[in-house]
Amino acid sequence: MSAAAPGTSKAAHSEVGPKKKKGPGALATAYLVIYNVVMTAGWLVIAVGLVRAYLARGSYHGLYYSIEKPLKFFQTGAILEILHCAVGIVPSSVVLTGFQVMSRVFLTWAVTHSVREVQSEDSVLLFVTAWTITEIIRYSFYTFSLLNHLPYLIKWARYTFFIVLYPMGVTGELLTIYAALPYVQKTGLYSVTLPNKYNFSFDYYTFLILVMISYIPLFPQLYFHMIRQRKKVLGHIEDYSKVE
Amino acid sequence: MKETWRTAKKAVVFFEVEILDAKTKDKLCFLDKVEPNATIGEIKSMFHKSHPQWYPARQSIRLDPKGKSLKDEDVLQHLPVGTTATFYFRDLGAQISWVTVFLTEYTGPLVIYLMFYFRVPFIYAPKYDFTTSKHWVVHLACMCHSFHYVKRLLETLFVHRFSHGTMPLRNIFKNCTYYWGFAAWMAYYINHPLYTPPSKYTCTYFCQIGNFSIHVALRNLRPPGSKTRKIPYPTKNPFTWIFLLVSCPNYTYELGSWLGFTLMTQCLPVAFFTLVGFIQMTVWAKGKHRSYLKEFRDYPPLRSPILPFIL
């Protein structure tokens, strides 16, 4: 899914009021600041790469190739966030974060990278753009939060941009998977058939269809969760001058 | 008349009980003239009268809004409360009995596997409808799988003694999805017309009988109707000798059964099912082992939770 993980922001917690119960230690905070700064920079590189490639070519077509490597690198790097939750330096659910990160990694590697024919589709640009803007805002949000100097603008952006970016990203993702289907069926990519000595079979084509169907229950839940978080976090307009 | 005799002998102090909602602290119920030797179970029944939608099984009564639930057997006058006792109530949600859940989740795999074994229409290609496999190991697998679940059903009805009567209703959906889903997945491949049999099979029987003996041994520890807990020890039955090394040998034998079944069928989905089951049983065994250690000072130190010396 293209949304920023709703549970990973400290401000997204349900309790209102001071919540510095047992945050990460000084070393962990320093590490996390560096991590989030590097990720912000990485996604900025991707953003700049997209803009430059567009200006150079004069069209939206095939921009994926200009940012393929940094996209793979920084999106895959997000797997570290699962580790952060597991170790406890980030107060989020390992399962939720794991799910979010792995779905992004799945789209990057198991769909876009694996099925060459979809790489020139415009739907790829759609989700890459959504991811890029979302991640730049999300990682800078974390950076500032960790440094205890969160500008209201960033907080507002993090809880507002998703309204457009999330559906945009989901649309791009679904269209890309859909575009990959005929090639997967034709080549039998990642599929195993009977008979074989493990008595096991796997049809990647059917699997991709099931993945697309899973968006139907999952997307609204995550979307409305973010909307509820938005009300909670931004609802206190009178506190806007108070820094997180 | 009995009452006056009692008051003549000893002044009986009745308790007053107020029950507040644990979250909102609203006063939900006030009971006066409660016997000092009333149990929490009896108080739950009284509470149920004033709030019929909360039957006793779904009530969690505690001394502290965030504390642990009190047991049904706890006696009012032995609790750290004054003569006006304040309890906090949390709704545990709709409940369903353990027996119902177990019967449902075990009947599914039994029936589902047989449907695949007999190759009921719409599963495999129509030319295979109602045919049977030519491999003897497929017949043996069906017998083992069916025996396993028949055994579990019989144990649920006649052997197991549960310390809690109910569990949350949503568990039945979760549990049935797990058991029924895996049963269908395994049965599909084992009974498939293109199934590739292994070249030899193993001791799945040995472990199934062991598993059953353990369940009987554990049953005999608990007198009928009570909820007491005792340390299990080996008996004359050789299958219980594993109690010397392991706290939860029923799980050890269960793992053995499914490992045997995996080796016998050489089917990857069966291996997955065995692995997932092993992970879950290890979690349970470790929890049980920990509570044994907490509850019994003299717990045998040589024992491991599920795998001798290892885990």
Automatic annotation (TrEMBL), chain A:
Recorded name of the encoding gene: HACD2
Localization per Swiss-Prot or TrEMBL: Endoplasmic reticulum membrane; Membrane
Record-stated family: Belongs to the very long-chain fatty acids dehydratase HACD family.
Region span, Disordered: 1-22
Record's protein name: Very-long-chain (3R)-3-hydroxyacyl-CoA dehydratase
Single Gene Ontology BP annotation: fatty acid elongation
Enzyme class, UniProt record, top EC level: lyase
Job description of the protein: Catalyzes the third of the four reactions of the long-chain fatty acids elongation cycle. This endoplasmic reticulum-bound enzymatic process, allows the addition of two carbons to the chain of long- and very long-chain fatty acids/VLCFAs per cycle. This enzyme catalyzes the dehydration of the 3-hydroxyacyl-CoA intermediate into trans-2,3-enoyl-CoA, within each cycle of fatty acid elongation. Thereby, it participates to the production of VLCFAs of different chain lengths that are involved in multiple biological processes as precursors of membrane lipids and lipid mediators.
Involved pathway(s): Lipid metabolism; fatty acid biosynthesis
Pfam families reported for this sequence: PTPLA
GO molecular function terms noted in the UniProt entry: very-long-chain (3R)-3-hydroxyacyl-CoA dehydratase activity
UniProt membrane topology term: Multi-pass membrane protein
EC code: 4.2.1.134
Domain of life: Eukaryota
Lineage of the species this protein comes from: Eukaryota, Metazoa, Chordata, Craniata, Vertebrata
CC annotations in GO: endoplasmic reticulum membrane
Keyword line: Endoplasmic reticulum, Fatty acid biosynthesis, Fatty acid metabolism, Lipid biosynthesis, Lipid metabolism, Lyase, Membrane, Transmembrane, Transmembrane helix
From TrEMBL, chain B:
TM region positions: 96-116, 263-285
This protein's GO CC annotations: endoplasmic reticulum membrane
Record-listed E.C. numbers: 1.3.1.93
Subcellular localization(s) per the UniProt record: Endoplasmic reticulum membrane
InterPro entries recorded: 3-oxo-5_a-steroid_4-DH_C (IPR001104), SRD5A/TECR (IPR039357), TECR-like_N (IPR049127), Ubiquitin-like_domsf (IPR029071)
Pathway(s): Sphingolipid metabolism; Lipid metabolism; fatty acid biosynthesis; Lipid metabolism; sphingolipid metabolism
Membrane topology listed for this record: Multi-pass membrane protein
3-oxo-5-alpha-steroid 4-dehydrogenase C-terminal domain sequence ranges: 166-311
Family named by the database record: Belongs to the steroid 5-alpha reductase family.
PANTHER family according to UniProt: 3-OXO-5-ALPHA-STEROID 4-DEHYDROGENASE, VERY-LONG-CHAIN ENOYL-COA REDUCTASE
Function: Involved in both the production of very long-chain fatty acids for sphingolipid synthesis and the degradation of the sphingosine moiety in sphingolipids through the sphingosine 1-phosphate metabolic pathway. Catalyzes the last of the four reactions of the long-chain fatty acids elongation cycle. This endoplasmic reticulum-bound enzymatic process, allows the addition of 2 carbons to the chain of long- and very long-chain fatty acids/VLCFAs per cycle.
Designated name of the protein: Very-long-chain enoyl-CoA reductase
Species assigned in the record: Amphiprion ocellaris
